[in-house]
Each structure stands twice: as structure tokens, then as C-alpha cells.
Amino acid sequence: MTDPVFGPAPDLDADPELVQLLTPEGERVHHPGFDLEFSAEQVRGFYRDMTLVRRLDIEATALQRHGELGLWVQSLGQEAAQIGAGRALLPQDYVFPTYREHGVAWCRDIDPVQLLSMYRGVDHGGWDPAEHNFNLYTVVIGAQTLHATGYAMGVQRDGAVGTGDPTRDTAVVAHFGDGASSQGDVSEAFVFAASYNAPVVFFCQNNQWAISEPIERQSRIPLYRRSQGFGFPGVRVDGNDVLATYSVMQAALRHAREGQGPILVEAFTYRMGAHTTTDDPTRYRHAEEVEQWRLKDPITRVEAHLRREGLADEAFFEEVAAEADELGERMRRECKALPDPQPRGIFDLVHAEQTEELVAQQASYDAHVASFEEVH
Questions:
Q1: Using CB atoms within 10 A of its CB, is residue 370 exposed (0-12), middle (13-18) or buried (19+)?
Q2: Least confident of 1-10, 55-64, 66-75, 226-235
Q3: pTM strictly above 0.85
Q4: Torsions phi, psi of 348, nearest 5?
Q5: 69/371 Cα distance (integer angstroms)
Q6: Rg (CA), the chain
Q7: What's the rounded Cα separation, in Å, for the pair 365 and 271?
Q8: 66-100: per-residue pLDDT in tens?
Q9: For an engineered disulfide with 279, which of 224, 237, 274, 348 has Cβ 3.0 to 4.6 Å away?
Q10: What ranges do the domains of the chain cover?
Q11: 176 near 148, Cβ under 8 Å?
Q12: Of all helices (H) and strands (E), which one includes residue 96?
């Protein structure tokens, strides 16, 4: 696709600086800077993760269309970027997501139904961030990059960086998209992270579209090169290649944990679905573009690799498909059973310890509700 102002969009296949370990046809290739050996079990695990996360996404979209969710933010086509990044984490690493990191949430053992509860409007995100080292979804575009940088500075001051202890040294990950890269919050986060050498990995999923604006209208240079202006390294990885994403993220996280400061990873991927379920992408992009990217589908390429190398038999694929069906059925059943929130609970969600003013307000509310019970 060519933009009349900025010219042609970048060509994924022709980018010499792109890190890729698995071609769209499923052929294993090697990269001099980021190469790992993967066991058959690991590759099968990546396939299972991506397949289940895609089913999660499909079911959630269907639930929204049936009126069970107020909104859903699709991740179709971005499974490799998210699973690769999520599986590279160590338990002590901390993640600050956007509102689309369903695959990373999966890797952090967040129950998919808890993702649905937020989009159903019955809570603000039903998981405990401290339990999973995975923050609540952030809807304000780009704000989580500042949160991540501040948290990383705190980790640094707690002495949990560069100690050489693999169970203690911690990296922080800030997820954001190409659209958020145009937000001032992201640039400010880059400034602070560089200034304080904070152990944060900025992970940008460049899915080519900031809602209806193509990436070539946002940046004249590849996004990963922006970090150079702030004084820290950047790397571009094929975001539809789960092996390459895992390898690059493993190296980036190690870079941060060792105290070498921030790093930017641009996962060059594509949003095959809509921005959200309120969006109609047919109004601003061509069907031919979507079809070209379907040939680079992250799940299809791993399946092709497993089959051509004889790393999985038909029984394995059938088992994963059956597990996906079970997940979909459970999501439908449990989503509809989610209880409505109790208004009284809002008083428990303001401060860790209630103030006298809140106690008085809660008592006033309780009395108000009780007055209706007396009438009936």
C-alpha cells in the first residue's frame, strides 16, 4: 500500500534488519544475533498457546456480537508477538499491558473469563496484579509506558537489578502499539527510562494501523530506530514469528535485568481483525492487504513447521482443537454467569484503608438502601 504523502509502506520480507527464525512457509532459518535452539515440546507449546488465545479472541468477539460484552478488543493475527513475549518472561518480571494483551495475560495465568468481566462491565479487571505480576489493562493510550518506567525505577532502587541472582533480577515490560508511539506519554517514558537507566523493555506491537491511520502517516523511519534518539538500543522482529519474538524478548529482558538499561522491541505484525468491535476496517483498508498478511499467519506457519519437520502428529492437532472447543464453551457459559457488581463495593476500591469520610459515606449509602427495604 502506498501513502500519497509518505510513500510505500515497509516491506516485511525485504527488511534486512528484521529478525526472523521461521518463514511464513514454516521453514526454520537462522539469525546471527538472535538464534536459539527450540525443542519439539517448546514449539508444540507455542502452537497450543496461540491456538487457544485465538479461540479466546473469537469467542469474545462472538459474545460481544450477541450483546454479552459491551466491547471487545481483538488480537487476531498478533498471537505470535504476544505469546513470544509472554513466554520469555521470568516469574519476577512485571508487565504493564494495553487493553489488547490477551496472549500475554494467558501466559501470566489470567483466567480468560476475568478478561471478559472487564469488557462486560462488571469489574475493572478481576485479577490481582501482584499475584500475576501483570497490571490491569490500561485504556488511556500510552499511559502504561509511564507506569512501567516508574515501576522499573522502583525495582532499580530496591536493588533487584544487576545482582547476578536469576531469581531476583527483574525486568519490566511496557506493551504499546504503533498508534501509542505518537503519544507524548511514550516519548516521556523514553526520556525517563534512558535518564535513569531503568530496567524496562518497551515492546511495541506495530500492527500497521492506529485505528484508521496507517503507520506510514505516523513515522518516517522504522519505529525501532526511534530509541536511538533517546540513547538506548532498538530491534525489529518479525512479530508473526513466535520463535523470533521469543528469542529477541529473551535477550531484551536479560539486557534489562543485568542493569544495561531500557531497550525497544518493535514486533512487526498485523491486525487482521478490527481495532475493536466498534470499528469497521473495510472503510479504510483494502481486502488485498489483509489477504497478503493472511499468508503470514503466525499459527499457520508454526503448524507448517511442525508438520514438515515431523514434530507433531495428527492426534496432537486434534487434541489442541478439542481443548479450544472446551475453552470456548467454558467462556460462553461462565461469561453469562458473571454476577452484576454490588454498588456498595465501590467504597472498598478507593483506598487501601478507608478514610473517615468514606466510612461516613458508606454508612449514609447503607441507610439509604435500608430505607427502601423498610418501605417494601
A1: exposed
A2: 1-10
A3: yes
A4: -90, 0
A5: 33
A6: 22
A7: 46
A8: 999 999 999 999 999 999 999 999 999 999 999 99
A9: 274
A10: 2-341, 344-375
A11: no
A12: strand 94-96
DSSP string, 156-207: HHTT-SSSS-TTT---EEEEEETTGGGSHHHHHHHHHHHHTT--EEEEEEE-
For residue 155, what is its C-alpha cell? Answer: 525495582
Task: Please name the residues in contact with 191: beta carbons below 8 A apart, sequence gap of 6 or more.
Answer: 230
Going through 254-357 in order, the beta strands assigned E by DSSP cover 263-268
Q: Inter-axis angle of helices 79-87 and 40-65, to 10 degrees?
A: 130
Tell me, what amino acid is at 337? A
pLDDT bin (cut points 50, 70, 90) of residue 7 is very low
Quick one: which of 82, 81, 131 has its CA closest to 111? 131
Q: Which residues pair with 163 in a beta bridge?
A: none
* Each residue's pLDDT tens digit, 268-313: 999 999 999 999 999 999 999 999 999 999 999 999 999 999 999 9
Q: Which three cell numbers stand for residue 36?
A: 536459539
Residue-level pLDDT at 134: 98
What is the average pLDDT across 154-166?
97
The amino acid at 355: T
Question: Domain spanning 2-341: which superfamily?
Answer: Thiamin diphosphate (ThDP)-binding fold, Pyr/PP domains (3.40.50.970)
Residue whose cell numbers read 435500608: 370
Report the C-alpha gap between 339 and 122 in whole angstroms: 7
Measured CA to CA in angstroms, residue 205 lies from 71, 249, 341, 374 at distances of 21, 13, 33, 56
